[in-house]
Amino acid sequence: METVVSLLLILAIISGTGAADPDMLQDICVADRTGAVKVNGFICKDAAKVNSSDFFFDGLAKPGSTNNTMGSLVTVANVDKIPGLNTLGVSLARIDYAPGGLNPPHTHPRATEIVFVLEGQLDVGFITTANSLFSKTIKKGEIFVFPRGLVHFQKNNGVVPAAVIAAFNSQLPGTQSIALTLFTATPPVPDNVLTKAFQIGTKEVEKIKTRLAPKK
Ligand SMILES: *[C@@H]1O[C@H](CO)[C@@H](O)[C@H](O)[C@H]1NC(C)=O
Ligand SMILES: *[C@@H]1O[C@H](CO)[C@@H](O)[C@H](O)[C@H]1NC(C)=O
User: Fold this and answer.
1) Cα(133)–Cα(126) distance, integer angstroms
2) SS3 52
3) What is the pLDDT averaged over residues 74-86?
4) Residue nearest (by alpha carbon) to ligand 1 atom 14
5) Please, which residues bridge with residue 113 across strands?
6) Is the CB of residue 146 less than 8 Å from the CB of residue 106?
7) In angstroms, what is the span from residue 52 Cα to ligand 1's centroid?
8) In 11-71, at which residue ranges do the beta strands (DSSP E only) sit?
9) Nearest ligand for residue 32 CA
10) What is the pLDDT of residues 1-58, one digit of tens each?
């Protein structure tokens, strides 16, 4: 009995600390991006040099340009933009979508995401490790959740632009875009891995690699 209780306790502790970024050990730890020391996060700036600018960002105020291949743009508001977020375990992003725009399938290895629709309407979904798709059409004022690490996407099938605010339980959620990860990595993933994985020929693999290659 005691063993079962301690096991449950251990599981609770592991899931409690493992679900998001680690807990902070002080009020603030504004990221010092110039520091040479590497830790799990960023080292703290001298508190005497911290001011309100370290906690401020206006980069999500306006729509970003969606004039690109996918017709969408993700603007992040994470610790890279707001040094005061260091150790706080949260961040935001704004995503804009042209009509027909797609935020292609991707995962965030370090965070669950919750989106709030600012404008327009989106068809969204995520896929579980059991390979089940959970999808829904969401519109202005509505919310949808993408559990941590699961592949997900958003598509604007409407005729007007759409936008969301996305919140994450990590200061730096990280993004792996599935197609880009596989077809535009440096150095490249070998063609013979991709031809076998996707059951297609080398020509098709090369075509995808060319089309997804960053525009110069
Ligand atoms: C905060 O400090 C930086 C220099 O470290 C300075 O450029 C900025 O103007 C200051 N902001 C405020 C709101 O005092
Ligand atoms: C969109 O981008 C293309 C190529 O970069 C450019 O030629 C075109 O003028 C842009 N359109 C708008 C509306 O900005």
Assistant:
1) 6
2) helix
3) 97
4) 51
5) 146, 168
6) no
7) 8
8) none
9) 1
10) 455 445 444 444 444 445 678 888 888 999 998 888 888 899 999 999 999 999 999 9
Q: Which two tokens stand for residue 200?
A: 């297609």
Distance CA 202, CA 192 (A): 8
Dump pLDDT digits (tens) for 107-118: 999 999 999 999
Neighbour order of strands in the sheet with 151-155? 133-139, 121-127, 151-155, 102-107, 176-177
Contact 82, 93 (CB under 8 A): no
- The CA distance from 74 to 115, in Å, is 12
Ligand 1: residue of 34, 52, 53, 57 to mutate (most ligand atoms within 8 A of CB) is: 53
What confidence tens digit (pLDDT) does each residue in 98-147 have?
Answer: 999 999 999 999 999 999 999 999 999 999 999 999 999 999 999 999 99
Position 216 scores a pLDDT of: 66
> Residue type at 199?
Q
The answer to whether 178 and 151 are in contact (CB under 8 A) is yes
- Higher pLDDT residue, 15 or 172? 172
pTM (predicted TM-score): 0.87
Beta bridge partners of 123: 137, 155
Distances 40 to 82, 180, 199, 202 between C-alpha atoms, Å? 17, 26, 39, 40
Q: Could you tell me the domains of the chain?
A: 2-175 (2.60.120.10), 184-216 (no CATH)
Helix (H, G, I), strand (E, B) or coil at 107: strand
Closest residue by Cα to atom 1, ligand 1, is 51
